[in-house]
Design goal:
Length: 150
């Protein structure tokens, strides 16, 4: 029977540290690849329909009814708020603006102390439609407010 040399202490220590680091990293992440649950103020949360929507904007409300007819230049006419929060076109600045702006509007109605009032969300949203740069900038601001919300 062949004999194998024992591993050095240094190698054992390195392996131990590696497995310790991997176990700590995996403990801080969810176990599923496509986990959608995050905060109560995110687009994913609102599109999941886990909570009753604010009465001011029912799920069947269209984006054009909520933000005004100027929306027709960028988005289709029958697009609903629930569809806008479930969108998956984050590479497009106007798509991000719609997703985060619709979420910010819902949060402004449903969450006390949200950073923006409903009137501010609508105004900032319409102002951001002038260019891709403005849309991207405002989408980021809405994203930050939505993520900071409780």
């Amino acid at each position: 029977m062949p004999t194998y040399p024992l591993p050095s202490r240094r190698l054992v220590l390195i392996l131990l540290l590696f497995f310790l680091a991997v176990s700590k990293a995996s403990a801080s992440r969810p176990g599923f690849l496509f986990t959608r649950t995050r905060g109560r103020c995110t687009p994913q949360y609102w599109s999941s329909r886990r909570e009753a929507w604010p009465r001011m904007v029912p799920q069947t409300s269209t984006v054009s009814n909520v933000f005004g007819s100027i929306i027709f230049e960028r988005y289709r006419s029958g697009l609903t708020l629930v569809e806008s929060t479930a969108r998956n076109d984050d590479e497009n600045a106007f798509g991000r603006l719609l997703k985060q702006g619709s979420t910010a509007l819902l949060n402004s109605y449903a969450r006390k102390g949200f950073k923006y009032s409903a009137w501010e969300v609508k105004t900032l949203f319409i102002q951001a439609l002038v260019s891709e740069e403005a849309a991207a900038r405002q989408a980021k601001l809405f994203f930050d407010a939505n993520e900071a919300c409780n």
